[in-house]
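Risk register update: the risk of archive-format incompatibility is retired. Evidence:
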Amino acid sequence: MNAPFGIVFLKKAELYNLIRRLDKQAADDEKDSINPNTWPVERMILKWTYKYHKHLGTPMMDDFFKSGNRKLKDWGLADINDVIKKEYKQTLKFPDKIRENMTIKGFADFDNNPAQPKNIIINKEGLLLGEVIYNVECRKFPVRWIYRIYSILIDYVGAWILLLFVIIPTIIILIINLINLFCK
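Archived output:
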């Protein structure tokens, strides 16, 4: 028996809040050209990872961030002529910072290969965050609003109220199913 929605959805609602916070922080830091915020690039990478990355154990290497690499176009950071888009040029000068931030935020882990210590591998948290980004940006209208509603409930009303909305319907469904099971 499935609950109306599960713990994974609550985790996704929490990640949606994180995305909104990181987006706001990146927008506030937009004018800092010396120390650019890496979140917009991280966001594009995570979205691509959820949708297209097929070899999850393959690390992200230095070459991925160099001009002319196909990955930049795949990630949406370069145009069809492999020219890096203007808004990402400054950030892509610091590939180590991008990888370190993704690791520190918990979206990736450093590769254990001693020959390539800077390589990272996207972890389960990064894939789930990429799924939320993809759902919010690419899915139909109701998906964004469902995340937004539960995000507001978590932020403003409190998580315990949200749990009541989850626990009470789940108990009711369980009772109804038990009654149906014993009444047959």
